[in-house]
Amino acid sequence: MGSVLDDQQVATFHRDGYLVVEDFASKESCAALKAAAEEIVDKFRPPTRPSVFRTDEQTRVSDREFLQSGGGVSCFFEADAFGQDGKLRTEKALSINKIGHAMHDLHPEFERFTYTPELASVAADIGLADALALQSMYIFKQPHIGGEVGCHQDATFLYTDPITVTGFWFAIEDATLDNGCLWAAPGGHNTALRKLFKRAAQSDEAGTLFAELDPTPLPSPSELVPLEVPAGTLVVLHGLLPHWSDVNRSPKSRHAYSVHCISAAAEYPSWNWLQRPANMPLRALAA
Ligand code: FE2
Asked: For the domain 7-284, what is the CATH superfamily, name and number?
């Protein structure tokens, strides 16, 4: 299909490092994705956690689950979801922070939402005609407890050489100042990558570490602009753009879905935390 974005939108993306496209996804497709996410959580049986008195063991278990999630569909809890006794403090459906990281290839509803000619066209319009869908996340931002996501650049977490990671973030529910909308630093994609998040070793058991590349601090929240957007909006995010989202202190959830893509022509180092199993090669966004 032809272009989805006009020249002005493409120019805005390259100038600011992000682009807001309202009415990209239909209300029906947002509702279907939300129902699919809620069903995944409903069927999910939380594993029994070691008690917090054995912190090392708990960390080792969560590290392994996280590092294996690149090729699966896993539910991740909010911080402090578990009490001292190793049990959930509140009901499961309100304790989940997000689902990740391969629903786009393993769940038909997520696959349908992700692999569309329209999204492939948006990627092509901004210079990513050979986009591969690397990772997907469904973020709940639960009422009252949905946690902050500190200011970061996505290329820290999904690195390619050269840097090509691009985020496609969809508001599945209205995102407002009250319920923890995205904030972005206009033009911040023209600054250096600050950090890399790496596997400590080529093992799912070894954990992860940050390696500093550039000591320049990321912008503080006062230097960012809020992106309050209605459900159905697509926000395209350059991999170097500093962005942040606040705690949700409101009684309303703020569901969002994001897909991160990379160029097929770029190198994806094996020290990236997210690795797909050999029998699950990445798929092109474009058919
Ligand atoms: Fe991000």
From this structure: q2cbj1_9rhob like domain (2.60.120.620)
Q: Domain-by-domain residue ranges, the chain?
A: 7-284
At residue 32, what is the residue type? Answer: A
Rg (CA), the chain: 18
Residue 271 CA to chain centroid, in angstroms? 19
How far is ligand 1, taken at its centre, from the CA of residue 57, in Å? 28
Query: In angstroms, rounded to a whole number, what is the distance separating the alpha carbons of residues 111 and 87?
Result: 33
Average pLDDT value for residue range 143-156: 91
How far is the C-alpha of 58 from the C-alpha of 81, rounded, in Å?
13
Model confidence pLDDT, tens digit, residues 90-105: 888 888 999 999 999 9
* 0.90 exceeded by pTM: yes
The tally of CA atoms less than 13 A away on the side-chain side of residue 69 is 20
Q: What letter would DSSP give residue 248?
A: -
Residue-wise pLDDT tens digits, 18-36: 999 999 999 999 999 999 9
- Residue 54 Cα to ligand 1 midpoint, Å, equals 31
